[in-house]
Amino acid sequence: MDIRQDDITHGIRERVATIVGTRGTIPLAAWSPADGPGEFLVLVGHGASGSKLEDYVVALARGLVRTARCTVVAIDGPVHGERRNDADAGAMLPFLEFAQRWSSDADLTDVMVDDWRRTLDAVLASDWVAPDCPVGYWGLSMGTIFGLPLVASEPRVRAAVLGLMGTTGPTRERLVADAPRVTVPTLFLVQYDDELVARDDAISLFGLLGASDKTLIMSPGAHGAVTSESFLRSADFLRDRLAKVASEPK
Q: What pLDDT was estimated at residue 49?
């Protein structure tokens, strides 16, 4: 791991680093308690047109560090953030380029799942987290496109927040096939007026999830209008479920 930035602000240690991936480097950002390792690890997948340092990612991460002594790690998605050469491209170009890649690159999901696994391996081997810490995943929209297959196939992930996605898009068959294999506690967010993902498709994907402990939260508003309350409830959900994992007999 190549750590390029390591700062402490208001009791939170914030790092920027890269690790080696299957298609070049994986840019990541991490937040953890300044006075020691995180008791839990939460992986955060951002949405299309965003980055690992999107405002809501940073806010979610800092909140989880303060309230639950989590270490939180986010990585840039394909054609986003530091995976681009044109950092000032704005939001629309990465969104359009991702849509094209999503449609044309049959290996894209597997590459991102592998990137997440490499990230998980590196962080769990570091001093950023306590030994045997429970792992959760949080990711909406594009974060679910890649995160749902990760959660379905990675036994180290013990709780998840997913949503803003449905049984639609170029990888619909993959999502439909993987959803029943998501058996960990899962919170799923839906926007009632989502202009990108039909409400019925989102509810259909939720219905396919194999978890016995699963909750759907539906809020009014468009795709990008997730409420502050939903963000807070998602953080509470991960904190609660990961604490239960930590309390299980070893």
A: 87
Q: What is the pLDDT of residue 88?
A: 60
How many other CB atoms are found less than 10 A from the CB of residue 249?
Answer: 3
Summarize pLDDT for 33-51 with one digit per residue, the tens.
999 999 999 999 999 988 9
Q: Following CA atoms 120, 125, 126, 132 in sequence, which dihedral angle do they give, to the nearest 10 degrees?
A: 80
Extract the tokens encoding 149: 């297959």
pLDDT tens-place string over residues 171-191: 999 999 999 999 999 999 999
Class of the CATH domain delimited by 2-247: alpha beta
CA 28 to CA 245: how far, in whole Å?
Answer: 26
Domain boundaries defined on the chain? 2-247
Residue pair 203/28 in contact by the 8 Å Cβ criterion: no
Cα 41 to Cα 197: distance, rounded to the nearest angstrom = 29
Handedness of CA 239, 124, 85, 87 (dihedral sign): positive
Q: Are 237 and 215 in contact (CB under 8 A)?
A: yes
Q: Are 158 and 136 in contact (CB under 8 A)?
A: yes
